[in-house]
Amino acid sequence: MIKRNLAALTFVGAALAGTATSWAEAPGEADLILVNGEVVTLAADPERAEAVAIRGDRIVAVGDSADMEALAGPNTERIDLAGRMLLPGFIEGHGHFLGLGEALMTLDLQDTTSFAELVDQVEEAVADARPGEWIIGRGWHQENWRETGAEVDGVPPHDDLSAVSPDNPVLLTHASGHAALANRSAMSLAGIAAQTPDPEGGEIVRDADGNPTGFLRQAAQRPVREGMRRWFEGIGELERDDRLRRQVELAGEQALAHGITSFHDQGQRFDEIDRMQALDDSGELPLRLYVAVIGETNTDLERRLGDYLRPPEPGRMMSVGAVKRHLDGALGTHGAWLLRPYEDRPESSGLPQVSLADLRQTAMIAYQNGFQLNTHAIGDRANREALSVYESVYRLAGDESLRWRIEHAQTVHPDDVARFAELGVIASMQGIHATSDGPWVPQRLGEERARRKAYVWRSLLDAGAVICNGTDVPVEPISPIASLHASITREMANGERFFPEQSMNRLEALKSYTTHCAYAVFEEDRLGTIEVGKLADLVVVDRNLLDVSEDELADARVDLTLIGGEVRFQR
Predict the structure, then answer these.
(1) Residue 47, Cβ neighbours under 10 Å: how many?
(2) 407 and 176 in contact (C-beta within 8 Å)?
(3) What is the pLDDT of residues 370-424, one digit of tens each?
(4) What is this structure's pTM?
(5) How many domains is the chain built from?
(6) Is 467 part of a structural domain of the chain?
(7) Is 416 helix (H, G, I), strand (E, B) or coil?
(8) Same domain membership, residue 112 and residue 210
(9) To which H or E segment does residue 32 belong?
(10) pLDDT tens readout for residues 36-78
């Protein structure tokens, strides 16, 4: 399994791999020292320090500034922290790296407050596009719109959208990623018409006459996305490679500017991994990526998965060690799989995306090939079923540490909370989701169900579960600071607090973005704390996140991001 592969990694020398915390135990000139700061190591000894010394890509000493100065030589670089906070680099526990890059290259619809604004953006994009070129955007949410027209499920029909884009297929992804709006051209290319049946796990939303409105839930998006994928495959290999490099460049810039040094990418198809590996081989990846395989059939996983296991290696930025599956959809689009129906849509309990037999088969393939399994589960039914599938494989594994993950775990029945800790399943959750979703979650679940089951971080932590935090970027902005603030305060945009009894304390929140995410991918021996022998992946923040007021915490800024002792971002 992955743990055995990671255990084979070697550090840069016996002295560095030990437990030394003072410069005397790691003699020699440092390449870089960071002094006069508030160093929060998130390790047991020392918990706090003033300075850190780095040689190569490793931390060689942690302690007082005077001790680090004694390690300096004529070639040593020096950074005066001037009282700023130094932390282990933030680890984005759940995001979509190439999706972030793509989102930065397409229409940003997050701030639209009406369907008309969305149409206006598409009209502007069409003016600069070639006929037949796809218009792509992301980020709209019907709960943010104030519409007065004829709407079905809160979303107007595609007519106005299609009118401004007659010669360009359009696909505009919902903020959650679990629904999309398509225009007439895109639906025509995908073969979606009045007589087209709903696919398993999806819904083609229709008007009173049975005609598609353009609102596609869950699996109903797939034919349109396949048509878009075919178009991109036809633009030429050179243009595709240039586009990939641009996605990587833009996503990397955003991540580094927010202090992210490692990114759990959920995930990539085999062909995308091949292309990303080529970029890694040529040294073009800007930060560490831990990639999950997604979008492949069980047949292809059985045939090819073993060839893609890639533990972390010195000099490499990308590793591959997980399989990602979607068991259900999102609450916002009524796709999360619930134990009982939605409060505001009593005819539905959600849209399961795979059968449990299919998920069990994936689980066995992952286990047999030494991969983690990361299952998207948002509804309480989906979480319960995923835990049961995991439990059946864990019995086979015995004492072996699998550390399989449930991605999101947004609604968990109280009876299932303790199962996370008992099984050792990682709760991969996103603090910012609770405060972003909070205004409308009670509409979906009802007040009582939301209070008992929704985003229950405190309950999971008290039960002994490990929470790995993140943003699900580009679903949410890629800001650990914002997600930490949300985890600690549960404060929504309107100033109200979303069931604040489920908040984390500050130390728990910081660990959820560092040590716990390192543990979640078997990398705790090299990442997640500031200790001698670990990789010098560090972030400098302009204030002490443990001590400042909650308002000041929200305004904190990343000043420096270092990966392997190299400054990759400076504000």
Answers:
(1) 11
(2) no
(3) 999 999 999 999 999 999 999 999 999 998 999 999 999 999 999 999 999 999 9
(4) 0.86
(5) 2
(6) no
(7) helix
(8) yes
(9) strand 32-35
(10) 999 999 999 899 999 999 999 999 999 999 999 999 999 999 9
